[in-house]
Amino acid sequence: MTRRRSTQQRLDPLGTLAAWPLAPLIAAIVLCYSVIATVLQQNQIQNPLLATLAVLAMGAAAGTLVIAAQPANAPFNGRMHLVMAALALLGYLFEQFSRWGSNLLVQDDFGPVCIGFLLLALAPYRPWRQIALSGAVASIVAIVITLPQADSFKVTVPVAVYAIVSATQILAPAAAGAAYSRRIVRSILAWQTDARRAIVARTEEARGQMARAVVEQQVAALKSGVIPFLADLLERGTVTALDIAQAGQLAAEVRRTLVAEIDRTWLDSVATRERAALTERGTPGLLVVADPEHRATAFRAEQRAATAALIGALCAAPGFDPHSLVVQITGTAPPVRSAPSKARPAQALPTMAQDTASVPRLPRTPAAKPAPAAAAPAQVDTITIQAALDLPPRKAKALLRPYLGVIRVVFDNVRVTVRRPSLTIEYDSVRDPNDASAAPQAPSTPATPAGVRAQKAPRQVR
Q1: What is the C-alpha to C-alpha distance for residues 305 and 291, in angstroms, rounded to an integer?
Q2: Which entry of 251, 292, 323, 437 is 20 to 30 Å from 376 by CA?
Protein backbone atom coordinates (compact mmCIF):
# COMPACT_ATOMS: atom_id res chain seq x y z
CA MET A 1 0.00 0.00 0.00
CA THR A 2 1.36 3.40 -1.03
CA ARG A 3 1.36 6.50 1.11
CA ARG A 4 -1.17 8.12 -1.22
CA ARG A 5 -3.71 5.37 -0.56
CA SER A 6 -2.97 4.88 3.13
CA THR A 7 -5.77 5.57 5.58
CA GLN A 8 -6.25 5.10 9.29
CA GLN A 9 -8.76 2.34 8.62
CA ARG A 10 -6.25 0.32 6.61
CA LEU A 11 -3.29 0.92 8.91
CA ASP A 12 -5.11 0.73 12.26
CA PRO A 13 -8.42 -1.15 11.86
CA LEU A 14 -8.99 -1.49 15.62
CA GLY A 15 -8.54 2.23 16.22
CA THR A 16 -11.01 2.98 13.43
CA LEU A 17 -13.59 0.70 15.06
CA ALA A 18 -13.47 2.96 18.10
CA ALA A 19 -14.22 5.98 15.87
CA TRP A 20 -17.20 4.32 14.20
CA PRO A 21 -19.90 5.93 16.47
CA LEU A 22 -18.90 9.37 15.15
CA ALA A 23 -20.25 8.51 11.69
CA PRO A 24 -23.91 8.03 12.72
CA LEU A 25 -23.63 11.01 15.08
CA ILE A 26 -22.48 13.33 12.27
CA ALA A 27 -25.10 11.86 9.94
CA ALA A 28 -27.82 12.62 12.51
CA ILE A 29 -26.55 16.20 12.89
CA VAL A 30 -26.56 16.71 9.12
CA LEU A 31 -30.10 15.37 8.71
CA CYS A 32 -31.54 17.29 11.67
CA TYR A 33 -29.87 20.55 10.65
CA SER A 34 -31.14 20.33 7.06
CA VAL A 35 -34.71 19.66 8.25
CA ILE A 36 -34.67 22.42 10.89
CA ALA A 37 -33.16 24.99 8.51
CA THR A 38 -35.77 24.20 5.87
CA VAL A 39 -38.64 24.53 8.35
CA LEU A 40 -37.39 27.78 9.89
CA GLN A 41 -36.69 29.43 6.52
CA GLN A 42 -39.94 28.65 4.75
CA ASN A 43 -40.41 32.31 3.82
CA GLN A 44 -37.34 32.08 1.55
CA ILE A 45 -38.45 28.92 -0.30
CA GLN A 46 -39.86 29.54 -3.76
CA ASN A 47 -40.10 25.90 -4.87
CA PRO A 48 -41.20 23.46 -2.13
CA LEU A 49 -40.53 20.43 -4.34
CA LEU A 50 -36.87 21.35 -4.78
CA ALA A 51 -36.59 22.09 -1.06
CA THR A 52 -37.94 18.62 -0.28
CA LEU A 53 -35.54 17.04 -2.75
CA ALA A 54 -32.69 18.95 -1.10
CA VAL A 55 -33.49 17.46 2.31
CA LEU A 56 -33.89 13.97 0.82
CA ALA A 57 -30.58 14.19 -1.06
CA MET A 58 -28.75 15.38 2.06
CA GLY A 59 -30.35 12.58 4.06
CA ALA A 60 -29.24 10.09 1.41
CA ALA A 61 -25.67 11.41 1.67
CA ALA A 62 -25.80 10.98 5.46
CA GLY A 63 -27.16 7.46 5.04
CA THR A 64 -24.37 6.62 2.60
CA LEU A 65 -21.84 7.73 5.20
CA VAL A 66 -23.37 5.48 7.86
CA ILE A 67 -23.60 2.45 5.57
CA ALA A 68 -20.08 2.77 4.16
CA ALA A 69 -18.50 3.41 7.57
CA GLN A 70 -20.03 0.34 9.19
CA PRO A 71 -17.43 -2.25 10.24
CA ALA A 72 -19.40 -4.87 8.32
CA ASN A 73 -18.76 -2.95 5.07
CA ALA A 74 -15.10 -2.10 5.66
CA PRO A 75 -13.04 -0.75 4.05
CA PHE A 76 -14.61 2.56 3.02
CA ASN A 77 -13.96 2.57 -0.74
CA GLY A 78 -13.65 5.41 -3.20
CA ARG A 79 -16.95 4.65 -4.91
CA MET A 80 -18.93 5.27 -1.72
CA HIS A 81 -16.91 8.45 -1.20
CA LEU A 82 -17.95 9.74 -4.61
CA VAL A 83 -21.59 8.75 -4.09
CA MET A 84 -21.75 10.53 -0.73
CA ALA A 85 -20.09 13.70 -2.05
CA ALA A 86 -22.30 13.77 -5.16
CA LEU A 87 -25.49 13.38 -3.11
CA ALA A 88 -24.44 16.12 -0.70
CA LEU A 89 -23.56 18.45 -3.56
CA LEU A 90 -26.87 17.65 -5.26
CA GLY A 91 -28.73 18.48 -2.05
CA TYR A 92 -26.92 21.82 -1.89
CA LEU A 93 -27.86 22.64 -5.49
CA PHE A 94 -31.52 21.75 -4.86
CA GLU A 95 -31.52 24.00 -1.80
CA GLN A 96 -30.11 26.97 -3.70
CA PHE A 97 -32.47 26.55 -6.66
CA SER A 98 -35.45 26.30 -4.31
CA ARG A 99 -34.51 29.73 -2.86
CA TRP A 100 -33.23 31.38 -6.03
CA GLY A 101 -33.95 35.07 -5.94
CA SER A 102 -35.18 35.11 -2.33
CA ASN A 103 -32.16 33.86 -0.40
CA LEU A 104 -31.50 36.48 2.29
CA LEU A 105 -28.28 35.20 3.89
CA VAL A 106 -25.37 33.02 2.85
CA GLN A 107 -24.38 31.85 6.31
CA ASP A 108 -27.75 30.26 7.17
CA ASP A 109 -27.80 27.85 4.19
CA PHE A 110 -27.55 24.27 5.41
CA GLY A 111 -25.85 22.93 2.25
CA PRO A 112 -22.26 24.14 2.81
CA VAL A 113 -22.31 23.27 6.51
CA CYS A 114 -23.62 19.75 5.85
CA ILE A 115 -21.06 19.14 3.10
CA GLY A 116 -18.28 20.25 5.43
CA PHE A 117 -19.46 17.95 8.23
CA LEU A 118 -19.73 14.97 5.88
CA LEU A 119 -16.19 15.52 4.58
CA LEU A 120 -14.93 15.86 8.13
CA ALA A 121 -16.44 12.45 8.95
CA LEU A 122 -14.29 10.87 6.21
CA ALA A 123 -11.04 11.55 8.10
CA PRO A 124 -10.53 7.99 9.48
CA TYR A 125 -11.60 6.30 6.26
CA ARG A 126 -10.25 8.13 3.20
CA PRO A 127 -6.83 9.53 2.13
CA TRP A 128 -6.28 13.17 3.00
CA ARG A 129 -5.69 14.20 -0.61
CA GLN A 130 -9.10 12.95 -1.68
CA ILE A 131 -10.80 14.73 1.24
CA ALA A 132 -9.04 17.99 0.39
CA LEU A 133 -9.86 17.62 -3.31
CA SER A 134 -13.54 17.00 -2.53
CA GLY A 135 -13.62 20.10 -0.35
CA ALA A 136 -11.98 22.21 -3.05
CA VAL A 137 -14.43 21.05 -5.74
CA ALA A 138 -17.44 21.64 -3.50
CA SER A 139 -16.12 25.11 -2.59
CA ILE A 140 -15.77 26.07 -6.25
CA VAL A 141 -19.34 24.95 -6.89
CA ALA A 142 -20.52 26.96 -3.89
CA ILE A 143 -18.78 30.09 -5.16
CA VAL A 144 -20.24 29.66 -8.64
CA ILE A 145 -23.76 29.26 -7.21
CA THR A 146 -23.46 32.07 -4.64
CA LEU A 147 -22.12 34.94 -6.76
CA PRO A 148 -25.15 35.24 -9.13
CA GLN A 149 -27.42 35.62 -6.08
CA ALA A 150 -25.56 38.66 -4.71
CA ASP A 151 -28.45 41.02 -5.49
CA SER A 152 -30.94 39.06 -3.35
CA PHE A 153 -28.88 39.07 -0.14
CA LYS A 154 -30.03 41.60 2.45
CA VAL A 155 -26.47 42.27 3.69
CA THR A 156 -24.67 44.60 1.31
CA VAL A 157 -20.96 43.73 1.21
CA PRO A 158 -18.41 43.26 -1.57
CA VAL A 159 -19.05 40.22 -3.76
CA ALA A 160 -15.82 38.59 -2.60
CA VAL A 161 -17.21 38.34 0.94
CA TYR A 162 -20.09 36.17 -0.26
CA ALA A 163 -17.62 33.85 -1.99
CA ILE A 164 -15.41 33.63 1.10
CA VAL A 165 -18.32 32.92 3.45
CA SER A 166 -19.80 30.20 1.22
CA ALA A 167 -16.44 28.51 0.62
CA THR A 168 -15.20 28.73 4.19
CA GLN A 169 -18.13 26.72 5.52
CA ILE A 170 -16.94 23.82 3.35
CA LEU A 171 -13.19 24.31 3.36
CA ALA A 172 -12.74 24.62 7.13
CA PRO A 173 -14.18 21.19 8.10
CA ALA A 174 -12.71 19.54 4.99
CA ALA A 175 -9.25 20.93 5.80
CA ALA A 176 -9.59 19.72 9.39
CA GLY A 177 -10.50 16.21 8.20
CA ALA A 178 -7.66 16.14 5.67
CA ALA A 179 -5.16 17.37 8.28
CA TYR A 180 -6.27 14.70 10.75
CA SER A 181 -6.05 11.96 8.12
CA ARG A 182 -2.59 13.08 7.02
CA ARG A 183 -1.25 13.39 10.56
CA ILE A 184 -2.59 10.08 11.86
CA VAL A 185 -1.35 8.17 8.81
CA ARG A 186 2.14 9.64 9.15
CA SER A 187 2.20 8.83 12.85
CA ILE A 188 1.16 5.22 12.26
CA LEU A 189 3.69 4.75 9.47
CA ALA A 190 6.47 6.23 11.65
CA TRP A 191 5.50 3.93 14.51
CA GLN A 192 5.51 0.92 12.18
CA THR A 193 8.97 1.86 10.90
CA ASP A 194 10.35 2.15 14.43
CA ALA A 195 8.71 -1.15 15.38
CA ARG A 196 10.31 -2.93 12.41
CA ARG A 197 13.74 -1.59 13.34
CA ALA A 198 13.29 -2.74 16.92
CA ILE A 199 12.18 -6.18 15.72
CA VAL A 200 15.24 -6.51 13.49
CA ALA A 201 17.54 -5.50 16.34
CA ARG A 202 15.94 -7.94 18.78
CA THR A 203 15.93 -10.72 16.20
CA GLU A 204 19.70 -10.59 15.99
CA GLU A 205 19.94 -10.80 19.76
CA ALA A 206 17.45 -13.64 20.09
CA ARG A 207 18.80 -15.71 17.21
CA GLY A 208 21.52 -17.31 19.34
CA GLN A 209 19.11 -18.08 22.15
CA MET A 210 16.65 -19.66 19.72
CA ALA A 211 19.40 -21.76 18.16
CA ARG A 212 20.49 -23.03 21.57
CA ALA A 213 16.89 -23.79 22.51
CA VAL A 214 16.38 -25.79 19.30
CA VAL A 215 19.60 -27.74 19.87
CA GLU A 216 18.60 -28.52 23.46
CA GLN A 217 15.17 -29.66 22.33
CA GLN A 218 16.64 -31.95 19.68
CA VAL A 219 19.21 -33.36 22.12
CA ALA A 220 16.45 -34.04 24.64
CA ALA A 221 14.50 -35.92 21.98
CA LEU A 222 17.57 -37.95 21.05
CA LYS A 223 18.32 -38.83 24.69
CA SER A 224 15.02 -40.65 24.98
CA GLY A 225 15.86 -43.22 22.29
CA VAL A 226 18.82 -42.74 19.99
CA ILE A 227 21.61 -41.99 22.48
CA PRO A 228 20.81 -44.92 24.83
CA PHE A 229 20.68 -47.24 21.81
CA LEU A 230 24.09 -46.09 20.54
CA ALA A 231 25.58 -46.31 24.03
CA ASP A 232 24.35 -49.91 24.33
CA LEU A 233 25.90 -50.79 20.98
CA LEU A 234 29.26 -49.36 22.05
CA GLU A 235 29.20 -51.38 25.24
CA ARG A 236 28.33 -54.66 23.52
CA GLY A 237 30.52 -54.16 20.46
CA THR A 238 28.28 -56.32 18.29
CA VAL A 239 25.34 -55.59 16.01
CA THR A 240 22.47 -58.05 15.69
CA ALA A 241 19.50 -58.23 13.34
CA LEU A 242 17.28 -56.91 16.13
CA ASP A 243 19.60 -53.90 16.48
CA ILE A 244 19.28 -53.21 12.76
CA ALA A 245 15.49 -53.28 12.96
CA GLN A 246 15.49 -51.03 16.02
CA ALA A 247 17.86 -48.58 14.30
CA GLY A 248 15.45 -48.39 11.37
CA GLN A 249 12.57 -47.60 13.70
CA LEU A 250 14.54 -44.89 15.49
CA ALA A 251 15.62 -43.36 12.17
CA ALA A 252 12.00 -43.29 10.99
CA GLU A 253 10.92 -41.57 14.20
CA VAL A 254 13.67 -38.95 13.92
CA ARG A 255 12.80 -38.35 10.29
CA ARG A 256 9.10 -38.04 11.14
CA THR A 257 9.90 -35.49 13.84
CA LEU A 258 12.08 -33.41 11.51
CA VAL A 259 9.44 -33.43 8.78
CA ALA A 260 6.75 -32.38 11.26
CA GLU A 261 8.87 -29.45 12.44
CA ILE A 262 9.60 -28.40 8.85
CA ASP A 263 5.93 -28.53 7.88
CA ARG A 264 4.84 -26.54 10.91
CA THR A 265 3.57 -23.01 10.18
CA TRP A 266 2.28 -20.15 12.29
CA LEU A 267 -1.26 -21.47 11.73
CA ASP A 268 -0.31 -24.78 13.31
CA SER A 269 1.12 -22.87 16.27
CA VAL A 270 -2.19 -21.02 16.66
CA ALA A 271 -4.09 -24.31 16.64
CA THR A 272 -1.71 -25.77 19.23
CA ARG A 273 -2.12 -22.73 21.47
CA GLU A 274 -5.92 -22.79 21.29
CA ARG A 275 -5.97 -26.55 21.84
CA ALA A 276 -3.93 -26.09 25.02
CA ALA A 277 -6.29 -23.31 26.17
CA LEU A 278 -9.30 -25.56 25.64
CA THR A 279 -7.61 -28.32 27.62
CA GLU A 280 -7.00 -25.92 30.51
CA ARG A 281 -10.70 -25.01 30.51
CA GLY A 282 -11.60 -28.69 30.74
CA THR A 283 -12.91 -29.04 27.18
CA PRO A 284 -10.13 -30.61 25.09
CA GLY A 285 -10.78 -30.13 21.42
CA LEU A 286 -9.68 -31.26 18.00
CA LEU A 287 -8.68 -28.31 15.82
CA VAL A 288 -7.91 -29.32 12.25
CA VAL A 289 -5.59 -27.28 9.99
CA ALA A 290 -5.52 -28.21 6.29
CA ASP A 291 -2.78 -26.34 4.45
CA PRO A 292 -0.89 -28.90 2.34
CA GLU A 293 0.81 -26.27 0.17
CA HIS A 294 1.95 -24.10 3.10
CA ARG A 295 0.13 -21.05 1.75
CA ALA A 296 -0.14 -19.64 5.27
CA THR A 297 3.52 -18.64 5.07
CA ALA A 298 2.60 -16.01 2.44
CA PHE A 299 0.26 -14.11 4.77
CA ARG A 300 1.39 -10.72 5.98
CA ALA A 301 1.85 -9.92 9.66
CA GLU A 302 -1.49 -8.10 9.99
CA GLN A 303 -3.28 -10.96 8.20
CA ARG A 304 -1.76 -13.51 10.58
CA ALA A 305 -2.72 -11.46 13.62
CA ALA A 306 -6.30 -10.97 12.41
CA THR A 307 -6.75 -14.67 11.61
CA ALA A 308 -5.27 -15.75 14.95
CA ALA A 309 -7.56 -13.34 16.82
CA LEU A 310 -10.62 -14.64 14.96
CA ILE A 311 -9.75 -18.26 15.72
CA GLY A 312 -9.18 -17.38 19.38
CA ALA A 313 -12.55 -15.61 19.55
CA LEU A 314 -14.30 -18.64 18.08
CA CYS A 315 -12.65 -21.03 20.52
CA ALA A 316 -13.62 -18.82 23.47
CA ALA A 317 -17.19 -18.15 22.30
CA PRO A 318 -20.13 -19.61 24.26
CA GLY A 319 -21.73 -22.57 22.54
CA PHE A 320 -18.56 -23.46 20.62
CA ASP A 321 -18.05 -27.15 19.84
CA PRO A 322 -14.32 -27.80 20.44
CA HIS A 323 -14.35 -30.71 17.97
CA SER A 324 -15.77 -28.76 15.05
CA LEU A 325 -13.16 -26.17 14.08
CA VAL A 326 -11.59 -26.73 10.67
CA VAL A 327 -9.23 -24.20 9.05
CA GLN A 328 -8.45 -24.82 5.39
CA ILE A 329 -6.35 -22.79 2.97
CA THR A 330 -6.64 -23.30 -0.76
CA GLY A 331 -5.29 -21.25 -3.62
CA THR A 332 -5.22 -20.66 -7.33
CA ALA A 333 -1.78 -20.53 -8.91
CA PRO A 334 -1.49 -19.41 -12.54
CA PRO A 335 -0.12 -22.08 -14.88
CA VAL A 336 3.45 -21.58 -15.98
CA ARG A 337 3.54 -21.36 -19.75
CA SER A 338 6.76 -21.22 -21.68
CA ALA A 339 6.89 -18.92 -24.66
CA PRO A 340 6.96 -20.82 -27.96
CA SER A 341 10.41 -20.69 -29.53
CA LYS A 342 11.02 -20.85 -33.25
CA ALA A 343 13.54 -23.60 -33.96
CA ARG A 344 16.14 -22.72 -36.55
CA PRO A 345 17.06 -25.43 -39.09
CA ALA A 346 20.24 -27.30 -38.30
CA GLN A 347 23.24 -26.39 -40.45
CA ALA A 348 26.21 -28.58 -41.29
CA LEU A 349 29.34 -27.61 -39.41
CA PRO A 350 32.83 -28.07 -40.90
CA THR A 351 35.07 -30.80 -39.53
CA MET A 352 38.52 -30.17 -38.11
CA ALA A 353 40.17 -31.47 -41.29
CA GLN A 354 38.35 -29.06 -43.53
CA ASP A 355 39.89 -25.78 -44.48
CA THR A 356 38.02 -23.06 -42.71
CA ALA A 357 38.72 -20.69 -45.56
CA SER A 358 36.74 -22.88 -47.95
CA VAL A 359 33.68 -22.84 -45.81
CA PRO A 360 31.32 -20.06 -46.87
CA ARG A 361 30.25 -17.74 -44.13
CA LEU A 362 26.56 -17.69 -43.45
CA PRO A 363 24.89 -14.28 -43.29
CA ARG A 364 24.12 -13.11 -39.81
CA THR A 365 20.48 -12.95 -38.98
CA PRO A 366 19.37 -10.54 -36.28
CA ALA A 367 18.37 -12.29 -33.11
CA ALA A 368 14.67 -12.29 -32.55
CA LYS A 369 13.67 -10.06 -29.69
CA PRO A 370 11.79 -11.90 -26.98
CA ALA A 371 8.15 -11.02 -26.76
CA PRO A 372 7.22 -9.03 -23.68
CA ALA A 373 5.97 -11.29 -20.96
CA ALA A 374 2.30 -10.96 -20.23
CA ALA A 375 1.33 -9.79 -16.80
CA ALA A 376 0.77 -12.81 -14.60
CA PRO A 377 -2.67 -13.00 -12.97
CA ALA A 378 -2.91 -12.33 -9.29
CA GLN A 379 -2.73 -15.33 -7.00
CA VAL A 380 -5.61 -15.79 -4.58
CA ASP A 381 -5.31 -17.73 -1.34
CA THR A 382 -8.70 -18.56 0.19
CA ILE A 383 -8.94 -19.38 3.88
CA THR A 384 -12.08 -21.14 5.09
CA ILE A 385 -12.95 -21.41 8.77
CA GLN A 386 -15.78 -23.76 9.72
CA ALA A 387 -17.10 -24.28 13.23
CA ALA A 388 -20.22 -25.25 15.14
CA LEU A 389 -21.48 -22.32 17.25
CA ASP A 390 -24.72 -22.92 19.13
CA LEU A 391 -25.87 -19.29 19.09
CA PRO A 392 -28.61 -17.43 17.21
CA PRO A 393 -27.29 -15.88 13.97
CA ARG A 394 -27.75 -12.34 15.29
CA LYS A 395 -25.76 -13.05 18.46
CA ALA A 396 -23.06 -14.89 16.54
CA LYS A 397 -22.58 -11.95 14.16
CA ALA A 398 -22.60 -9.47 17.04
CA LEU A 399 -19.93 -11.53 18.82
CA LEU A 400 -17.67 -11.66 15.76
CA ARG A 401 -18.39 -8.15 14.42
CA PRO A 402 -15.17 -6.49 15.78
CA TYR A 403 -13.00 -9.30 14.44
CA LEU A 404 -14.73 -9.37 11.07
CA GLY A 405 -14.33 -5.60 10.85
CA VAL A 406 -10.56 -6.06 10.94
CA ILE A 407 -10.69 -9.10 8.64
CA ARG A 408 -12.54 -7.07 6.00
CA VAL A 409 -9.77 -4.46 6.02
CA VAL A 410 -6.76 -6.78 5.68
CA PHE A 411 -8.39 -9.40 3.41
CA ASP A 412 -10.62 -9.37 0.32
CA ASN A 413 -14.07 -10.80 -0.45
CA VAL A 414 -15.11 -11.73 3.07
CA ARG A 415 -18.10 -14.10 3.12
CA VAL A 416 -19.92 -15.12 6.31
CA THR A 417 -22.60 -17.83 6.41
CA VAL A 418 -24.46 -18.51 9.68
CA ARG A 419 -26.89 -21.42 9.81
CA ARG A 420 -27.24 -22.44 13.40
CA PRO A 421 -25.20 -24.20 14.58
CA SER A 422 -22.99 -24.08 11.49
CA LEU A 423 -20.72 -21.08 10.94
CA THR A 424 -18.57 -20.62 7.83
CA ILE A 425 -16.20 -17.70 7.25
CA GLU A 426 -14.33 -17.38 3.96
CA TYR A 427 -11.98 -14.64 2.83
CA ASP A 428 -9.32 -14.19 0.17
CA SER A 429 -5.74 -12.98 0.24
CA VAL A 430 -4.86 -11.53 -3.15
CA ARG A 431 -1.15 -11.15 -3.81
CA ASP A 432 0.89 -10.08 -6.80
CA PRO A 433 2.90 -13.02 -8.23
CA ASN A 434 5.58 -10.59 -9.45
CA ASP A 435 6.23 -9.48 -5.87
CA ALA A 436 8.95 -11.72 -4.50
CA SER A 437 8.23 -10.67 -0.93
CA ALA A 438 4.69 -12.01 -1.19
CA ALA A 439 5.69 -15.47 -2.34
CA PRO A 440 5.42 -18.26 0.19
CA GLN A 441 8.70 -18.92 1.88
CA ALA A 442 9.70 -22.19 3.42
CA PRO A 443 10.59 -22.05 7.10
CA SER A 444 14.27 -21.73 7.93
CA THR A 445 14.77 -25.23 9.32
CA PRO A 446 16.96 -28.16 8.30
CA ALA A 447 16.17 -29.59 4.90
CA THR A 448 13.80 -32.53 4.65
CA PRO A 449 15.52 -35.88 4.09
CA ALA A 450 15.38 -37.07 0.51
CA GLY A 451 12.36 -39.13 -0.40
CA VAL A 452 10.32 -38.21 2.67
CA ARG A 453 7.75 -36.02 0.90
CA ALA A 454 7.01 -36.76 -2.72
CA GLN A 455 5.06 -33.56 -3.30
CA LYS A 456 8.08 -31.32 -2.73
CA ALA A 457 10.13 -30.54 -5.82
CA PRO A 458 13.76 -31.75 -5.63
CA ARG A 459 16.42 -29.12 -5.25
CA GLN A 460 18.68 -28.32 -8.17
CA VAL A 461 22.29 -29.29 -7.58
CA ARG A 462 24.78 -26.84 -9.02
Answers
A1: 17
A2: 292
Smallest Cα–Cα separation from 432: which of 373, 380, 372?
Answer: 380
Span 197-234, pLDDT tens digits: 766 666 655 566 655 665 666 666 665 666 776 777 77
**Residue 288 dihedral angles phi and psi, to the nearest 5°:** -100, 130
Residue whose C-alpha is closest to residue 431's, from 444, 417, 441, 416 = 441
Distance of CA 312 to the CA centre of its chain: 19
Cα–Cα distance measured from residue 225 to residue 230, given in angstroms and rounded to the nearest whole number: 9
Per-residue pLDDT tens for 339-353? 444 444 444 434 433
- 232 membership: H or E segment, kind and range: helix 226-236
> For residue 91, how many other CB atoms are within 10 A of its CB?
26
- The separation between the first and the last C-alpha atoms of the chain, rounded to the nearest angstrom, is 38
What pLDDT is attached to residue 260?
A: 56
326-332 and 288-290 as β-strands: parallel, antiparallel, unpaired?
parallel
Q: Give the residue among 330, 331, 228, 337 at the shortest CA–CA distance from 289.
A: 330
